User: Which sequence fits this backbone?
């Protein structure tokens, strides 16, 4: 009986939430109800994530959004490759000791627990470089779960009170102010996302990336650490763009998989993906598209800090490492 009551309450709350979301959309679009309903938009359905992660015992501590911010109080890290050693392991310990928020380390071993049935981890995943596995998962985890993300680099600051910045539901992404030279961009994606609806003057000059990189970078946040709200329009476009790239390249990736984890900046094995293709090239143009939802204020990880483990450069020779 009590259980039944709970179920009824849960259903009612979920319905109320989805109505509010629809209203939010419809008011923004001047009365036109354009938001897909929950039923035909599983990607935006929080309850699908909740059900699956609860059944795996991973919901309460890791995924449940903080009721005041809508963002879970965790920092995700990813590691794919040889075991962390030396500076890399020290960096990980530094994050754990200093960041003041539970740190989750996702690896090949525990990843299957986070594989959602309504959006399975892409079948191209095994063929990606370690770096691209992590990049792929950033879009996946940020869209479905949200929370903090940190590269495994030395961190001295606490983020314990930084999650409060997301009390404002308009803040989708809170991060470290970008610096000159930090922006990655792909002209095709930039033009598609920024120049089709309300083109700026620079759109007509094929200057999308140049503008972001040289003129507008200071409004953006860096790639390597942030706190993010799940299931926003931004994460949705990001995860679908990444999926689309992998759909297109699946055959090439099978024929030319990454030969070692920190591949491939020099065309090794004809690996088909560019270094920043899944992360920076998508992330920076999308930030610009949703600029009013981006907030700066996190402090950067320890600049000049060493973070490479001695085993990470081993096997940069394709024939040796295969
Ligand atoms: C995720 O799930 C899909 C579908 O069940 C499966 O094909 C895939 O191998 C899984 N990937 C990982 C990394 O667990
Ligand atoms: C990789 O190893 C092979 C075989 O030992 C050698 O012929 C080749 O020159 C090496 N390539 C590089 C880039 O070091």
Assistant:
């Amino acid at each position: 009986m009590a259980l039944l009551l709970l179920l009824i309450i849960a259903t009612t709350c979920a319905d109320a939430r989805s109505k509010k979301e629809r209203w939010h959309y419809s008011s923004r679009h001047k009365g036109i109800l354009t938001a897909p309903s929950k039923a035909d938009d599983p990607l935006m359905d929080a309850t699908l994530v909740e059900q699956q992660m609860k059944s795996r015992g991973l919901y309460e501590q890791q995924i449940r959004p903080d009721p005041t911010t809508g963002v879970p109080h965790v920092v995700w890290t990813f590691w794919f490759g040889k075991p962390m050693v030396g500076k890399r392991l020290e960096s990980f310990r530094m994050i754990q000791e200093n960041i003041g928020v539970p740190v989750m380390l996702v690896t090949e071993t525990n990843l299957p627990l986070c594989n959602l049935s309504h959006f399975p981890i892409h079948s191209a995943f095994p063929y990606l470089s370690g770096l691209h596995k992590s990049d792929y998962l950033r879009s996946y985890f940020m869209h479905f779960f949200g929370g903090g993300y940190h590269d495994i680099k030395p961190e001295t600051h606490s983020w314990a009170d930084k999650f409060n910045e997301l009390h404002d539901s308009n803040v989708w992404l809170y991060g470290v102010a970008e610096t000159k030279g930090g922006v990655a961009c792909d002209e095709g994606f930039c033009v598609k996302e920024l120049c089709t609806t309300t083109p700026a003057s620079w759109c007509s000059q094929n200057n999308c990336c140049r503008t972001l990189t040289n003129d507008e970078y200071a409004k953006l946040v860096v790639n390597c650490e942030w706190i993010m709200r799940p299931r926003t329009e931004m994460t949705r476009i990001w995860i679908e763009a990444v999926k689309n790239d992998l759909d297109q390249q699946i055959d090439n990736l099978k024929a030319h998989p990454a030969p070692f984890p920190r591949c491939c900046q020099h065309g090794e094995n004809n690996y088909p993906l560019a270094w920043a293709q899944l992360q920076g090239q998508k992330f920076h143009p999308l930030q610009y598209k949703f600029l009013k939802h981006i907030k700066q204020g996190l402090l950067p990880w320890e600049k000049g800090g060493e973070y490479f483990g001695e085993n990470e450069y081993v096997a940069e020779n394709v024939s040796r490492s295969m």
